[in-house]
Design a protein that fits this description.
The protein is built from 12 helices and 11 strands. It has helices at residues 3-38, 55-71, 86-93, 108-115, 123-126, 151-160, 175-187, 199-207, 218-221, 274-288, 291-299, 309-329, and strands at residues 44-48, 75-79, 101-106, 127-136, 138-143, 166-169, 192-195, 213-217, 230-235, 262-269, 303-307. This is Tripartite tricarboxylate transporter substrate binding protein.
Length: 336
């Protein structure tokens, strides 16, 4: 074979290989475009990383019902509690990026990286925010038999009995847990932390008298604000809650860094095509902006928010930096 013929043969082989690669790329692109155009064409799962019955669960079921009606595709809610929400978060982070496995996460998802050396997923790299639908505050609540009727009395009693009392959170490494550790540090208290797999079981034990005190989120607390089985002593957040205007905030009582609110935000795996992210984001916000659904969210004691995918990335970064500063400066430590 002459040198020229050999060159021509190699060139043909190279061209055939290049065309086969290009054909594969084109086929993949067409398939992806078809998947985006037809989305959704099968069942969608919303993963709630906490137990059934809590505020996260209630919001997920509200959205699932609305999407099912609007898209004529079944949308189900699956509860995957454990490890302060990390089990459910990790499931979605590692799911196929096709828009059919959705996470409803809370603030703990951006607090965890500042608390733990090892987390099985990278929030920034593995998950993308889709829609934020609510903000919440936590309340310091004690059982009815607790020997204190005011926040000041609570501090006095706990200080006088180091290690005797416990406080419950709705999950390890959640805002509830962090708020408890912040109060312990700033007030000089010794209390045992008891983490629960969600707000519903936490509140059940508090109402039953098995738990001395707890930081309870407003959505779970709302139905029990008039109960004679508990006493509500203080609130997180920048200002007093509209549903409990007589309950003072930690800030107005001289405590630091209790102003940030918790959030409820939907996430998808990070490699989900942008058109699918946008379609899900726009539909969730469209459905929840109705007066009826806005009232349902606010009826849980939450601030209804309607923030879409494009605006959420910088908000997540800002909130992560705020919580990172609070955790570092407060030397907050939680058990993993």
């Amino acid at each position: 074979m002459t040198l020229f013929k050999k060159f021509r043969t190699q060139a043909k082989i190279g061209a055939i290989f290049a065309l086969s690669l290009l054909g594969g790329v084109v086929t993949d692109t067409v398939a992806q475009e078809g998947a985006v155009k037809n989305y959704p064409d099968k069942q969608i799962r919303i993963i709630v990383p906490y137990s059934a019955g809590g505020s996260t669960d209630a919001l997920a079921r509200l959205v699932a019902g609305e999407l099912t009606g609007a898209w004529k595709q079944t949308v189900i809610v699956e509860n995957k509690p454990g490890a302060g929400g990390m089990i459910g978060n990790d499931l979605v982070a590692k799911a196929a990026p096709d828009g059919y496995t959705v996470l409803l996460g809370i603030t703990a998802i951006i607090q965890g990286p500042h608390l733990f050396a090892k987390i099985p997923y990278d929030v920034d790299k593995d998950l993308t925010p889709v829609a934020q639908i609510g903000l919440s505050s936590d309340f310091l609540v004690v059982k009815a038999s607790f020997p204190a009727n005011t926040f000041e009395e609570f501090i006095k009693v706990v200080k006088a009995n180091p290690g005797k009392f416990s406080y419950g959170s709705y999950g390890a490494a959640t805002s509830s847990n962090i708020h408890g550790e912040m109060l312990k540090k700033q007030a000089g208290l010794e209390m045992t932390h008891i983490p629960y797999k969600g707000g519903a079981p936490q509140l059940t034990d508090l109402l039953g008298g098995q738990l001395d005190a707890a930081f309870v989120d407003v959505a779970n607390l709302r139905a029990q604000i008039k109960s004679d089985k508990i006493k509500i002593l203080a609130s997180t957040g920048e200002k007093r809650s509209e549903i409990l205007p007589d309950v003072r905030t930690f800030t107005e009582m001289g405590y630091k860094d209790f102003e940030p609110y918790g959030f409820f935000t939907f996430f998808l795996p990070s490699k989900t095509p942008k058109p699918i992210v946008d379609k899900l984001s726009n539909e969730i916000l469209r459905l929840l902006r109705t007066p009826e659904n806005k009232a349902k969210i606010e009826g849980m004691g939450l601030q209804a928010t309607f923030t879409g995918a494009d605006a959420l990335a910088p908000l997540m970064k800002r909130d992560s930096e705020i919580w990172g500063k609070v955790i570092k400066e407060g030397n907050i430590k939680v058990e993993q």
